[in-house]
Structures
1.
Amino acid sequence: MSDILETTLCGIQLKNPVIAASGTFGFGEEYAGLFDVGILGGISSKGLTLNGSYGNKGIRVWETPSGMLNSIGLQNPGVDSFVAHESKIMRSFGCCAIANLGGHSEEDYIDGARRLNDADIDMLELNISCPNVKTGGMAYGMQPEFAADITAKVKAITRFPLIVKLTPNAPDIVAVAKACEQAGADGLSLVNTFLGMAIDIAQRKPVFNNVYAGLSGPAIKPIALRMVHSVAHAVNIPVIGMGGIASANDALEFIMAGATAVQIGAATFSDYRTMGRCIEGLERYCIDNDIKSITELIGIV
């Protein structure tokens, strides 16, 4: 593959702007037998917590028109296991390795970030946007002051470029983005899932034990694209766009809206070849339109 798709994200060079989204790709090994994971620009790890978690009980995934609801609850092996084992698996693929860190408390985030300093990764993605945990998570990303506070504290500890993952459920996502930038974030990723709900009409009760769950997939793309455009034009740090991307054309929209890179998640569940096809499509678009570098398209809209 040519270098036409190379891009730089927070000082780290990516072979292309396509990153596997956190929570949809494990640590890469789950898909390694299906395609060459090394073709990706990067992998964002399963959402990590300080201590391992089995996640939520009951139904975890529910299909919706043009999307899906999930209530996984950050099932993961824990930060220490990741440092010792899973991070090495991610590194073996030869693409950008991003650790996604969640937390149930300020102490969890700070201690987790400190321990992740021992991992062989490239970036830290601070997840203050997960809607599927009862404490922490999205609560930190709803208001600018809370987002800025946890961002500043983690930034003071981590040795890696810090990306803050934002929730679309915030009353003013642009204000949250600006607060994170001012607090020291090196980049932003958005959007995480929208809060949604499903009801089992036969049993006359919510499908999910937590009642609400996270909506992803093509249904959210137009709203996610609008939010990425708004944030990218309001801050001076790079943005990773996500939300319903299922093709090269989708990815191009996010890049033209201002995203330096994109993350693809739900589409991988329906077709594991989606990210590979997206990379091929991006390169084809650049060649067909005499674009010398994909970076020429960032934020042109």
Note: Residues 274-288 form the longest helix (15 residues).
2.
Amino acid sequence: MKTTSKIYTSLIFVFLFAPIAVLLVFSFNDAKSLSVFSGFSLRWYRELMSDENTLESVKNTLILATSATCISTVVGTMAAYGIYRIRREWMRGVMNTVTNIPMINPDIITGISMMLVFVFVGHLFGAATSLNFWTLLIAHVTFCLPYVIFQVLPKLNQMDSNLTEAAQDLGCTPLRAFVKVTLPQIMPSIITGAIMAFTLSLDDFVISYFTSGNDFQTLPIRIYGMTKKTVTPKMYALATIIFVVTMVLLLINNVVESKDRKEDRYNSEGGTR
């Protein structure tokens, strides 16, 4: 039984990671062939670095992802704290359900509906162009917010509320008590939520496709345009860079969560002694 389980698990990992391994290997291929590896080379990375349109889309994507992450992290943390402070269980359940909707809603439905709203508002105010960077930013903040909220909210529920009340009894204002007591305890969850929001914004295609204008192109849309032409290993190089960045963010996220779990375990053991 154990041998069968190991074989089954190995097959799953091969199925999941074999395509990525092929992509990584052929991004260093010296020839243009997508099936025969003729030698190690950084040729396609050099060509990628000289592609101005792709570099421009990378810059746009980083600007958009950073802006959406900052806004959604701040607003999402405030929203999570607001939900945490709701005393009525039915009202908290309603807020959790409403927050869940953007997560379970198909991306294509979200993208089309937001595009219709932006176009309607643009025509209402007589704007020459309804879709631009700002509509794209609003769309990204919208679908990133729930992930931040649901990362921060469980940590707030685990927190000892007596600490905040004690800080206020000792003379802290509610804002100062939040900054000095609550914020340090939920900071690991905030960082995790921010990393998740950045990753989601970085690789989003469907919603970006429907809510972006002609003057602002993100990297996923650029890659989609490149696939309509002849596929070259330059795309492999680009995908490899994206994969490495995502892996680094994942490792940072795991380190933060691991430290947070150790601190929770230490505090729990200390409280029982």
Note: The radius of gyration is 23 Å.
3.
Amino acid sequence: MALMLAALACFCAALPLPASAQLERWTLERTVTIGDAFDPETGLTRVGSVIVQGDRLLVAQPMEQRLRVFSLTGDFLGFIGRDGEGPGEFRRVRSMGLHDGRVWVHDSSLRRLQYFDADGRFVSSVRIGGHPALLGARVRAVLADGSMLFKYGASADELVESPPKPEAVFLVDPEWLPQDTVAVLVGHSQVVRLSDGRSGRTTYSAIPESYRSLLSVAPDGSGFVVVHRNGTTSAEPHTFRVIRFDARADTAWAREVPYDPVRVPGTWRSRQVEEDARDTQGLGIPEDRIRQALERAYARLEFFPPVRVVRAGADGSTWLLLRTGVESYEWEVLDESGHAVARVGPPQGGIAWADAESLWSVERDELGISYLVRYVIRRP
């Protein structure tokens, strides 16, 4: 707890940086599409982490326990790993990144990190050690000095508590000794507990709007970003806080981003309750109890959270998906110093990887099949 309080005090002491007076308007040009449902090589299942290593694109495939590798023009180059427990094999691909010219992959089932060279060949395996609590945490990055960034994930029970449990983001050195808590993720995530009230059958559903802090890590471990999304109870202009950390997990900059709160209309609430109630059917819980729980959850949402997603760019940039209306969004791009430099309309899907020249987006077709799209950034 002392470490968490110290981290929060550090956040409060960091000075905000001013926004740029004039923002460029960037546009996106769709250039490469990857994915073919009928091709066993290029057909993508659920997409996990996506990183660019030199002239290669690496795509984590958690359902298949392997990585797909493509050229930046979309040519299939091969696989890394397969299902299994031996060297270079995976039981559960959890996260991946770059460190010292190699690719690391966190296997949360086998509790180890595996490293692969620039050609995708297995190099080494490191079993996660230290305190037993580390076994349940997720490796988010391997930083420049070999320290690892971990994050504990609060359970659904802990998230529905009031106040919800904070989530610690902390460093562990190469000898598996905890170093410091560098950030604390706080706020409500709008998790709803659904129960039939008789047999004890309970499940959880997360509504799509959350005031929980956001975390995004640069793919090469050169830094990470935390966004604190404070709730508001009025339509007056407000701010949310963005903090960028460098490769040593020191605060590089902090900034208060201004925004105009967007009020949640009653028609939007009603539509979301109907959609969520339909999606949660078949759980063995009466529909009227599901609907009542969802209505109570949505009734607490007076204003939308100001930012929905953050992405730490591979070049030191920071990308914030801002809500500009009830159904509209726009990405704001911050440079390596935290100054706002551009706005760009969102691609059809979410941004999986970005720098100042291009980005990769994970999109879905009408059947829900995933594919990757590369967009080149066009500046005025």
Note: The longest helix spans residues 266-279.
4.
Amino acid sequence: MKKSKRSRLKRIMAICTAGIVLFIATACGSEKSILNLAKPKKDNKQTVRMFSPMEKTDPNAENVARSAADKTIRMAEEKLGVTVDYITYTAENYQDKTYDEVTLDRARNDMDDFYLLNPDTVRRLGEEGKLMDLSDLECVKNLRDVVKTANTINGKLVAIPQEIVAYGLFINKDMFDQYQLALPETPEEFLECCRVFKENGIETPIGANRWWLETFVLAQAYADLYNGGNTEAEIEGLNNGTKKYSDYMRPGFEFLKELIERGYIDAKKAYVSEAIEGEGADFLAQKTPIVMAYWGAANTDTAYGNPDFNMLVIGFPSSRGQMPVIPMTGYGIGANAQHMQDAMRVLNVILSDDALKVYTETNKVISPSKNVQVDCIPALKPLNDKIEENVYVLGANAGMKVEQWGNTCLIVRKLLNGATVDECMAEFDRLQQESLE
């Protein structure tokens, strides 16, 4: 039963952060031995093996449509004279395994040199001692504090991303102006905006799906923890059991329950709706003024990149005002990597300010480097301003023994399906007890 729940969590983690390429990888074919995923190439100290969802079957092939990540890998190859072999999750043998499951197998068996990792995988491999400490890399001195906080385990920085993915509230500013509403800062102000919309004929003020409502909860739960100056001590209290996750989570769940009971969220529709597909049409048609999504959705025409109204992306309501929510992925190097030194050199290049500038300009995302600024569209400026001020909440933190993003998503879905707040809090208490045992 526990194995089944863990499998479900990994699958939900793969969808919950759709803004990150790592989280949307899928596989095809039938399950076979992990050793059949890719035939190991002849040993060459100038070849570095990377496992990721990104396809690059021939590392020497010219490709005019390279992604942002591909461009930085090419920079490393040209500068260092090495070849980076992509070993990808898209092999035919793995329809029944999630990206996380395959990554864990490969990393535990020292099959590759470095990996692109989801938050829970970062935490598990870091705790198992399967990832190198990257603290001495030259690029680390330029990292934002949020990156170090999210991916540090037992004092070791075990993963570094190429981008920071931020979640926020996507607002139809024209509809707010129509009813003379200020953009909400606190939960109380947010409820008042929803009341006005509802009373003026907006049937469902908040468009929601079954994956991202945890952003409301996380913003309220950890606004003080991450912005109150006592982060390390509070996380230590959660990890040793002197503080309870349920005490942090309760206000956010009570807030969601109130939104549902007042009809501001359609719980039944949200429970079965996929991200953006479920609520996107109503938002774009101006039937609902509020949805939640990740940074990249504002740049993508297939999501919210081309609305017929004035759109703004702001943080979620909290006791400290508008609060971005940031989950975190990253590249990690195997502790027993065959080509460890070359892998370190590659990461130093692709995570350098020069490479991150290329990556950021290509994808229009927030850089993990404090020296690289994104030229964001006006709609994203409110969210970006908060992050530049170091105001945020981590939706995933490898230093917490209870995984946050996927677990909170699962428990929010219980609330959508009729569970009480007390029942949801009991689930957090159970997870915390398991982590202590």
Note: DSSP finds 17 helices and twelve strands in the chain.
